[in-house]
Amino acid sequence: MNAALAAIAVAIAASVAAGCVLLEPAQTIDERDACGAKALAHLIGKSLGDAGVPAASSTVRHIRPGDAVTEDLRIERLNLYATGAGVIEMINCG
Fold it and tell me: What order of strands is seen across the sheet that includes strand 88-93?
């Protein structure tokens, strides 16, 4: 009977080992920069209307003082904070 249990244990171990596959590490997303804000840091000090500044859309917000904005967190959304004159002061995701 011990031989039968040993054979079953070996069969189970073999089937478990056969099911194991080495996977590449998952590519992680830095949630603090899911929208690519770091790559746009060079836009600070530029006008919202300058070439290269993303236009306001469902995934890009141009936020000026006094603007009403939702507080929902969407890590893929780009926020461009600007002065009343439209000069970009800060860029982040959310």
Answer: 60-63, 78-82, 88-93
